[in-house]
Recover the amino acids of this structure.
């Protein structure tokens, strides 16, 4: 009897002893992930103590490096997947075998839903070419990710986890999406109990639409509308966000779905920013002349940014000094620097009324006053002329 056989027999006795006088311990089943500590390294196997669950045996070639050395030592912590049972001990795998052994494991993975690891070797028509322990597999484009990825070349060279959806006559079909959705479902279940309006949570940008960005907040997606991206106007979410970017968002609203699907979640980052209107009320004064930048044009007028994130409206009737304007583009263009006079401020409605016509008239009046002052005699000169006049009399 070999050392490995001795250990296997010892494991069987220990497992049997644990069930005497107490309720049987639920043993992990094939496909389950387990964690244990290396207790011994034999000639052909590594033995793992899985605590109260059971004991495991890991074939030595599973943990041998290219130079023949074992990558583990006694006392190391190991995470592995249960592949079966041998002599009372659980057979573990940290990676698949190759050749005939790999094919047998793929059959088992398909039947039991055990995830397998594969390396993406290339992009082919309709999906990805994947090497799973020497067996060529195919992952359809729709199954590569939870969301469709247009440029799938980003996965080439990566080692990813897949679910085996078909393995017949050597045809291996894989799905990564199935695993991601399962993981997202678990995360969503954990998140749902904590989710409420006002909560600030970390998320990742997963996609864009013209009206906003999708953000993964932990197995669930929320919508970050363009109006909630900041206090300044944003035309497209891509202008201020990047795909994959991590950011803090606040839950603004939760709308439960009537059909039992996941709720619709509205998010905001604007609510986490300081409100610029507090400073605006202090610094903007009715009647004052200020400089601003034209941000956008509408048929009814032009919007001018007079302070960071603070826009005011110059109505079309206030654009031209003494002339009729049919459209703001006849007078101004986006990006142009202009002078305006503040006609009114409404902090509650967050509106600032501006006038370019009044500013132009004021500037004209100032220029006229300066011109008149330049041609009038100086006080000293007036005194001299008066003296001459009196002398002549």
């Amino acid at each position: 009897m070999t050392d490995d056989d001795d250990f296997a027999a010892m494991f069987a006795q220990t497992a049997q002893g644990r069930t005497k006088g107490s309720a049987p311990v639920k043993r992990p089943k094939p496909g389950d992930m387990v964690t244990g500590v290396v207790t011994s390294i034999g000639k052909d196997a590594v033995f793992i103590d899985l605590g109260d669950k059971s004991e495991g045996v890991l074939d030595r070639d599973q943990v041998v490096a290219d130079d023949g050395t074992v990558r583990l030592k006694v006392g190391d912590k190991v995470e592995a997947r249960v592949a079966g049972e041998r002599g009372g001990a659980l057979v573990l795998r940290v990676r698949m075998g190759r050749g005939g052994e790999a094919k047998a494991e793929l059959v088992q993975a398909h039947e039991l839903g055990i995830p397998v690891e594969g390396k993406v070797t290339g992009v082919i028509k309709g999906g990805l070419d994947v090497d799973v322990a020497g067996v060529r597999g195919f992952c359809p484009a729709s199954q590569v990710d939870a969301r469709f990825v247009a440029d799938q070349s980003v996965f080439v060279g990566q080692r990813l986890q897949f679910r085996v959806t078909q393995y017949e006559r050597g045809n291996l079909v894989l799905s990564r999406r199935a695993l991601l959705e399962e993981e997202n479902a678990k995360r969503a279940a954990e998140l749902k109990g904590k989710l409420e309006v006002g909560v600030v949570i970390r998320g990742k940008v997963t996609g864009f639409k013209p009206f906003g960005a999708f953000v993964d907040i932990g197995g669930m997606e929320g919508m970050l509308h363009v109006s909630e991206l900041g206090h300044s106007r944003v035309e497209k979410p891509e202008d201020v966000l990047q795909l994959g970017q991590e950011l803090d968002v606040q839950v603004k609203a939760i709308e439960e779905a009537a059909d039992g699907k996941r709720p619709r979640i509205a998010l905001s980052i604007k609510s986490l920013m300081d409100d610029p209107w507090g400073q605006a009320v202090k610094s903007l004064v009715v009647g004052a002349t200020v400089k601003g930048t034209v941000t956008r044009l509408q048929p009814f007028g032009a919007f001018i940014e007079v302070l960071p994130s603070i826009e005011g409206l110059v109505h079309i009737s206030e654009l031209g000094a003494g002339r009729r304007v049919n459209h703001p583009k006849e007078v101004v263009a986006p990006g142009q620097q202009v002078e305006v006079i503040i006609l009114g401020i409404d902090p509650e409605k967050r509106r600032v009324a501006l006038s370019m016509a009044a500013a132009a008239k004021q500037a004209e009046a100032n220029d006229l006053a300066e011109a008149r002052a330049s041609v009038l005699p100086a006080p000293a000169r007036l005194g001299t002329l008066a003296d001459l006049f009196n002398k002549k009399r």
